[in-house]
Amino acid sequence: MISDEQLLEQMAEGNQAAFEAFVHRYHVPIHQYAERLLKDSKKAEDIVQETFIRLIKQLQMKKIPTYPKAWLYRVASNLCRDYWRSAQYRTEGTAKEEMPISVDQKASVTEIYERQETRKEVLASLNTLSDAQQQIVVLRFYQDLKLKEIAEILDIPLGTVKSNLFHALKKLKGALSKEMGKEAENNEGTSASERPRAISTRR
Fold it and tell me: Is the pTM higher than 0.90?
């Protein structure tokens, strides 16, 4: 398969087929990334289009990104961040990052991602994280990027990525444990209310 760098070199020379191939390769991943951060499909599409527009401008200046994949995600991340700021996105609950959550330190913080059925609950719990932590979690577990790639995309030290990811997973694990506890209580209440009927049936 032709590499990203080769496609960009051909794009810089005006090859339309190369451009279409590159867009086909990254349109869906970048859209999914932006949509999970913004929770708005239409706005995510705007982010994708602006990302590719900036790539074209970059190529027109004969500046081919060294790591195309990381470059695309970095631009998309910055655009999402600009959108949050300009629209004062998610202004409420600015202290969510400091929300106290009880966590079992002995349990693995990544085990919540090892079961496919928890993915929906994890997405719903992303709101408990800071913007930076959301980006790192989405890039790592939903875009399957390596920690080093994430550090390059967000332009932060690798150690900062690891630290943010660890604390983000602790928060998500605590939020999910709390949610599962509520479900267990509801189930117990339901079963208890059904016991008299079960006894009367036997009679």
Answer: no
